[in-house]
Amino acid sequence: MATDKRKVLLVGGAGYVGSVMTGHLLGKGWSVRCLDQLIYKNESCAWPYLINPQYEFMRGDVRDPRIVTQALKDVDDVVILAGLVGDPITSKFPDESHAINRAGIGSLIDTLRNHPVDRLIFVSTCSNYGLVEEDTAVDENYPLAPLSLYAKHKVEMEQKILSLKGKVGFHPTVLRFATAFGLSSRMRFDLTVNEFVRELHLGNELLVFDPKTWRPYCHVSDFSRAVEQVLGAPTDKVAFEVFNVGCEENNFTKLMVVEEILKHIPRSKVTYQERGADPRNYRVNFEKIRRVLNFTPEVSVPQGVNEILAALRQGLFDHVEEQRHFFGNYEIFLPAPHVSDLKRAI
Ligand SMILES: NC(=O)c1ccc[n+]([C@@H]2O[C@H](COP(=O)([O-])OP(=O)(O)OC[C@H]3O[C@@H](n4cnc5c(N)ncnc54)[C@H](O)[C@@H]3O)[C@@H](O)[C@H]2O)c1
């Protein structure tokens, strides 16, 4: 395996996407170091990997330059996943979002300039496209129109990275992920497909805002495959490139997602309401990642619905309400500022 001696740093590697990616990359021969502050009390996501000598876990904040420097030691590649993820959590905690998603990630990117890393993958989002004309499936060149603080910071970090062309020794790639679905040890039931399946499984009435709005979806395991492919691709194919990650078959309206679930749970109660709080509407074109990297996701939305439902029906998620903080991005648990940091601030 060409990757035998490569060590990848997953920043935010104990989250929903990172937990699955860790197992995938370890299985493919990478050494993985995870830097994560565990802001959802998601310690348990590191447990399964600690026995593996190719895995290291570091608890720490991406905003702490000393920790970041330690985490970068002897690392070949870096994947940035960390941050406050999603529109609701960033609008609930705007100050922390500025501090982490903008200042913290920005300073990590600056720090990388002094380290001999090879690849950098910045995980961004298709949310950056915002509201798109009905008949357009947007490609990577479509003008970005971020509607939330979350997407605005993503766009800012993308621009910061892409502006480094010719100025840095490492090879960065921006991946704009579709909305994830599927099982992870840091399960998130605040993501559309996962949430809808659980609500209808529980027999709850589901209120769906703007049912005809489009979104691209992608299974969480397929993101791991995409990252693996980018890390292993020739640099001339991926350096300073932006790729949408997903596939057209998984562009679904919310109504289509609900209809998939109703095939399994037909007597569900669903109500629809136009003009909800979230105006995002976009279908995405994934031709570039298919053409350049020959990447196609393996898991469809209907398969994901089956997967989540099977787990719920076996009682694997019977205690979500008791540990709500773990099962979605609703609340954050950041350590109190250190006394010396407070003094500096004063
Ligand atoms: N989940 C999706 O649907 C989706 C869609 C598009 C893009 N993405 C991107 O994928 C990445 C991962 O998303 P996710 O769903 O796994 O999110 P997540 O919230 O599950 O994971 C984020 C991780 O970052 C960690 N973190 C947060 N602040 C930190 C800090 N200051 N220092 C160190 N670690 C910190 C958290 O503890 C958590 O483990 C994000 O960059 C997100 O923008 C996700």
Automatic annotation (TrEMBL):
Coiled coil: none
Pfam hit, one: Epimerase
Family annotation (InterPro entries): Epimerase_deHydtase, Lipid_A_modif_metabolic_enz, NAD(P)-bd_dom_sf
Domain NAD-dependent epimerase/dehydratase: 8-246
Protein name, per record: NAD-dependent epimerase/dehydratase domain-containing protein
Native organism: Bradyrhizobium centrolobii
